[in-house]
């Protein structure tokens, strides 16, 4: 027998038909007060993504990378509590059952963010019942997506750069766009006036959010991966309008654009666009990176 990172104890059974596993210990069985101190595994632990990063190293140039964040909320909850007990909880202790499922859900939500951070092209979700659905609005070119709360309402929004903008509606008619989410994943509101309006003509792609001007809201950057449209940073005015603060046309970078405080001055993030996939040394940084250092002003 062995216990996993969730504290669930498993028994491995072998018979003439093969090998299977079954749960013999539920960490939250018994008194409901156990939930008050229970800690889910850390979804930001780099070890959780080591296999993904290894595969990315091998296949990212010519394969579509999928991050699996498909933990079933119902299944994980009864694994922790016990099936009979959790079904009873749903009937007699609905507040406890809801709190347990809310806690469980924090893992796949953060894991999805981590997969996006690590360069996944897509994240695979489930609804906890084995049913999957797709929702899409607009006519989008392929590209890269950043996720964050751009208007401060506590809900996740999306920003994205696109290879082409063929749409005749407000979804997909600009090479850089932002859309507000309502928390359901199925309703989005364009919030992108002024984006993609500085000569970006084709091939915008990787995108990231950060507060580059230190005013408390998320700004956006996107780069061109194959059409000479350069790098562009837009400041968020907080009302659905954006203004370019840095950018140029011409030149290309490959796979990523990432904000970070590279020089450790605490004065806001810089923007980094990796030009080559191989390992680099300190002396090669200037050759392989384009840096637009923000001074916090």
Question: How would you explain this protein's 3D organization?
Answer:
Helices cover 19% and strands 28% of the residues. The chain contains five helices and 16 strands. A four-stranded antiparallel sheet has the order 6-7-8-9, with no helix packed on it. A four-stranded antiparallel sheet has the order 10-11-12-13, with no helix packed on it. Strands 1-2-3 form a three-stranded antiparallel sheet, with no helix packed on it. A hairpin with an 8-residue loop joins strand 10 (204-210) and strand 11. Helix 2 (73-81) packs across helix 3, helix 2 packs across helix 4 and helix 3 (83-92) crosses helix 4.
Topology:
Elements: E1 2-3, E2 9-15, E3 18-25, H1 50-59, E4 66-68, H2 73-81, H3 83-92, H4 94-117, E5 122-124, E6 143-148, E7 157-162, E8 176-181, E9 188-190, E10 204-210, E11 219-224, E12 231-236, E13 242-248, E14 257-260, E15 270-274, H5 285-288, E16 289-292
Parallel strand pairs: 4-5
Antiparallel strand pairs: 1-2, 2-3, 6-7, 7-8, 8-9, 10-11, 11-12, 12-13, 14-15, 15-16
């Amino acid at each position: 027998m062995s216990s996993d990172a969730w504290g669930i104890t498993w028994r491995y059974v072998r018979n003439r038909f093969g090998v299977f596993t079954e749960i013999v210990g539920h960490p939250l069985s018994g008194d409901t007060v156990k939930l008050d101190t229970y800690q889910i595994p850390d979804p930001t632990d780099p070890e959780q993504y080591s296999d993904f990063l290894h595969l990315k190293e091998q296949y990212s140039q010519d394969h579509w990378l999928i991050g699996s964040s498909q933990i079933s909320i119902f299944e994980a909850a009864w694994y922790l509590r016990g099936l009979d007990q959790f079904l009873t909880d749903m009937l007699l202790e609905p507040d406890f059952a809801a709190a347990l499922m809310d806690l469980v859900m924090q893992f796949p939500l953060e894991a999805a963010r981590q997969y996006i951070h690590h360069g996944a092209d897509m994240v695979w979700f489930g609804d906890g019942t084995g049913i999957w659905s797709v929702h899409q609005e607009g006519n989008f070119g392929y590209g890269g997506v950043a996720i964050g709360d751009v208007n401060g309402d506590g809900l996740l929004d999306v920003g994205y750069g696109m290879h082409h903008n063929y749409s005749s509606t407000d979804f997909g008619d600009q090479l850089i766009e932002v859309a507000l989410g309502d928390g359901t994943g199925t309703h989005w509101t364009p919030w992108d006036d002024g984006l993609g309006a500085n000569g970006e003509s084709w091939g915008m792609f990787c995108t990231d959010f950060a507060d580059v001007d230190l005013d408390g809201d998320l700004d956006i950057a996107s780069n061109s991966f194959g059409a000479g449209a350069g790098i562009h940073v837009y400041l968020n005015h907080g009302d659905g309008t954006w203004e370019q603060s840095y950018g140029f046309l011409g030149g290309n970078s490959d796979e990523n654009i990432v904000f970070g405080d590279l020089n450790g001055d605490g004065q806001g993030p810089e923007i980094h666009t990796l030009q080559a996939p191989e390992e680099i040394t300190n002396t090669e940084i200037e050759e392989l990176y384009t840096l637009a250092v923000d001074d916090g002003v």
